[in-house]
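Sequence dictates fold. Below is an illustrative record:

_____
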Amino acid sequence: MNIETNTPYSQTARQSTVKTRNENSRFLKLYAEYLDLKQNIDILQEKILLLKEITEYKSPSLGGGGGKNTCADKIGKNAAKIVDLKREQGEKEVRMLELWEKIADRVCSLDNPTQRRIMTERYINRKRWDTIAKDINLSERWIFRLHKKALEILG
């Protein structure tokens, strides 16, 4: 028994082996990068919308009495920020699409139709494990086993 966790050593070792194997999966790394880019794009879109609102609504803080900090200067700076953010967003969207194509190609390369369906439902359609099991009419435990084998095949 492992005293620190009160679980049998074999269970702890098995969990760390599964965790290590999954962490080393190139497929899961691709998918994690895809999700990260998607989240970053959403954040950029929010920033762009906020800057547009600030720029379109000429609040007293944007107004000035002339000089360096005039309304036009602040609007111009915001417009430049929007352009930069849109460029960054476009670059991230291109990378995200490239990753999506790699993910879809890898999933489609699976020979086993059940594994291919599980991976499609999970990573393409983003369904929950219980939903996938119900749709395919297999137990969740069996779904996990097939998923694990598919990850080993995909690398």
